[in-house]
Amino acid sequence: MKNSNLLKRVNALGFSLFGVEEDQNANLTLADMVKSGDLRLWEGFPVVLANSAEKGWFNYNKVSLYLKKPLDKSYLASLMVMSLALYKFFNLKFSWANEFYKSLPDNRQKEFNGFLKQLRNNNDLNVAGREMSAQRLKTVFNNYFSQSQTKLNELLSVKDELSLEYSLSQVFSPKQKELFLKKLKREKLTKTEKEYFSRVVKKKALALANPELHRLSQKLLE
Question: pTM of this prediction?
Fold first, then answer.
């Protein structure tokens, strides 16, 4: 692929093609992935979408604004629906994905059902007029998801990662959750992130770790 800059941006948002880490405009990157027409990048679209949404960066309307051609906007819609079907196949429940599905018109929900059926039967998908391998889509996403959860599993021994993700979302904002997880995984924080973590996130974590608060919370739920 000629667009090495796009590949670097895609990598930094979770779909590793090169070893580069830098701040990114997630919505612009997603739009450029759509416009590229490159099947390898389209296969990684669900990865970058999930990672961007988890960090609170994804905004569908902003992605769409970067796409000037009606055909590209149609490609975006199909890639979004394909991604939702892939998440459903893996039984991943993202609140943003559920809300987006509800906003889909009937023809896109029908497309979703078709994609899900093809994924379950391991048949190729026709996404925006392009044949995409169901097996490759599942392998690419499963590899990313497995790798991204390994460190958390080792640190927390969490059996239900989705329950953890939901619980964290009830307490922390997307940015706070991102810093909480980065700190757990011992990833390097910028000076600004360190200051924000100490000022806000750490205080919430201390409150959550308070045994008396935990006991009272359990009592309220009895």
Answer: 0.61
